[in-house]
Amino acid sequence: MKEEVLSMIFYGDTTYSIWKSIQEQRLPDTEDNEAQLKNGLYALSKGTISLDEYIRKFEETCDKLATIKKPLGDADKVFQISYGLGDKYKEFRIVVLSKPPYLSFNQFIMSLQNFEWVYLTEERQQLNHNQAFFRQRGRGKGHRGGITMAQKEKMSKKLLQP
Known about the structure:
Layout: H1 3-10, H2 15-43, H3 51-67, H4 74-83, H5 90-97, H6 105-137, H7 149-160
Helix pairs in contact: 2-3
């Protein structure tokens, strides 16, 4: 324990007076901490980090708020985490938050992770489709991926010249 806390304990008459004294001295720290945590929560955005990392950071901050007895409600958590998602999740936000009843925080997270999985799967399939298209297309004039007869003749003439 810190020295200042120990001095409060030694001079306290009852457990209640000791606790009350500690609480009075620590209350400004708690209020500052609450403001700092909430500002951090409002500023948190997904950006380029993974969805799982974003959720972890969000939940970590919510847990810290709960430890100082300032927990956020489910609806507040749902709206706050959705604000930091970015444009990639715009359609998801519109569908989920457009009408009550709103999902619980856990339901929202499960739906969000499912949306992310579907989005990444479709993105991968589109990429594979594009790669197959370009591979079939080739480079030659006839789009068959080889050298044309005219190019072959030019190359053979160059090779035969002394």
